[in-house]
Amino acid sequence: MITRLRRLLADERGYTLIELLQVTVILGVIMGALTTVFVRAMNAELEMNKRFTSQQEARIAVDKMRREVHCARLVSPAGASASITVTLPVGCPGAPSAETTVVYATQLVSTNRYKLNRNSVRVADYITTSSVFTYTAQSTSSLAKLNVNLPVNSKPAETGKTWRLNADIVLRNSTRS
Hints:
Layout: H1 2-11, H2 17-71, E1 74-76, E2 79-81, E3 83-88, E4 100-110, E5 113-118, E6 121-127, E7 133-136, E8 145-152, E9 163-170
């Protein structure tokens, strides 16, 4: 029994250095590939969140603008522009006890990237053009109308990923002339 045990112990061998190095290299390749997959997935999620946030900000900005413009007495200037001034009479949502003016304007952040401000406070970001407003004054056949065109792209260098929000807002307090 003891000789048999000695023979078994004598036949046991460990791993060689080459075998250990091979296992380490294989494990390193697998871990490197997994790390690359996880990093790409994390970057894709961050980009998707940035895109969603910029689109949501644009929607909320246009909704707020729509409420104010529907109630507005006047919007200026006429034609296409990078900024508008909205005059809110007393009783409008967001207007205190006196007539109020609200300025919506685009501001350059970097190349091909603008942000939309409401009274110098950012309401939307990652807009790709500065002229987002087109105001048409009232006529004999229609009320005054404001067209808002917000092209949003969280990666302005990649033009194929632009999302557009286009809204026509009618000034209900304007009169046909």
